[in-house]
Amino acid sequence: MFNREEKIPEAEEILAKMPLPADLKKIKAERDALASAVIRGETDKLLVIIGPCSAHESKPVLDYVERLGKLNEKVKDRLVLVPRIYTNKPRTKGVGYKGMFTQPDPKSKEDILKGILTIRRLNIDAIGVSGLSAADEMLYPENYAYVEDLLTYIAIGARSSENQMHRLVSSGIDLPVGIKNPMSGSIPVLINSIYAAQSGGQVFKYQGWQVRTTGNKLAHAVLRGAVDGYGNDIPNFHYETVMKVVESYSKTGLENPAIIIDTNHSNSGKQFKQQIRIVEEVLNNRLYDRDFKKYVKGFMIESFIEEGNQHEDTVYGKSITDPCLGWADTERLVLDIADKV
């Protein structure tokens, strides 16, 4: 049984109510072009999607993104930095804090309309203070329309990569969409998901319309590790595993083959400090093998102002979901990546 609580306006109405200003639209278009160029292989720059596991409060996120914007000035000739502003949080057991979209204040009740307006304001302000447009996870495909004019990178999570609607909506997006391997780690499933997202002519109901997509040639792989039947984490960032994905790519004819390494989750066993070591290993492998370097085009890294995590929102700039690197380690790591591209 569904108890109706509040009618949510259509996306067009929300976007008209809180539009992205013209000067920031120009910045976003420039950032879109930079990120897309990495996935197309038109530049040797690396794409680094970096930031908190989830955005639960606007002020520290804006503080973090502003710092990232200043750091970007030091590395922009070698890296394309995209801040994570993740506003929908998947839950393994289906319960708990589900992100700013649903619950804009983690200490208060759910309020989706307020959540939509809050994340639009957060993303607009983030572009303004940093000159960087963000990445978010498309956990609920129908919600994407409320932020489609604000984002530069869209992630499809491990639990969603086999979902038909995620694949269909991805095929209608004109931006880089990183599709994570499923929790099982299956590479054939991952490749099939990318194939579906790259395929045009998909017809389905979306936002009250019958739509037909043109296919998204920027859809690509994100390796986040796997989980076996006993709940053990299985990393897939090592050379041998990555090269198996490269081999699968080479057999398919998919356009713009690219791999992004997610340094946390099952690759690190959520041991957040291991992200530094994982990045170093991947960078060394890029030096070792030309094909590895050709395909591996960036990282996803979880970091915030304060390292670790907390169960309640008491420490400013500290994650209330998965543990993250702190700012000091983040700055050193980004500079190190830039030195080794």
Can you put this structure into words, describing what you see?
The protein has one domain: Alpha-Beta Barrel (TIM Barrel). The protein is α/β, with parallel strands linked by helices. It contains 10 helices and 12 strands. The protein is 38% helix and 16% strand. It has helices at residues 11-17, 22-40, 58-75, 112-130, 164-170, 187-198, 239-250, 274-288, 290-295, 327-340; strands spanning 46-51, 79-83, 134-137, 151-156, 177-180, 203-206, 209-212, 219-223, 226-227, 233-234, 259-262, 296-302.
What secondary-structure arrangement, pairings included, does this model have?
Blueprint: H1 11-17, H2 22-40, E1 46-51, H3 58-75, E2 79-83, H4 112-130, E3 134-137, E4 151-156, H5 164-170, E5 177-180, H6 187-198, E6 203-206, E7 209-212, E8 219-223, E9 226-227, E10 233-234, H7 239-250, E11 259-262, H8 274-288, H9 290-295, E12 296-302, H10 327-340
Parallel strand pairs: 1-2, 1-12, 3-4, 4-5, 5-8, 8-11, 11-12
Antiparallel strand pairs: 6-7, 9-10
Helix pairs in contact: 3-4, 3-10, 5-6, 8-10
Concise account of the structure shown:
The chain has helices spanning 11-17, 22-40, 58-75, 112-130, 164-170, 187-198, 239-250, 274-288, 290-295, 327-340, and strands at residues 46-51, 79-83, 134-137, 151-156, 177-180, 203-206, 209-212, 219-223, 226-227, 233-234, 259-262, 296-302. It is α/β, with parallel strands linked by helices and 341 residues long. The protein has one domain: Alpha-Beta Barrel (TIM Barrel), CATH 3.20.20.70.
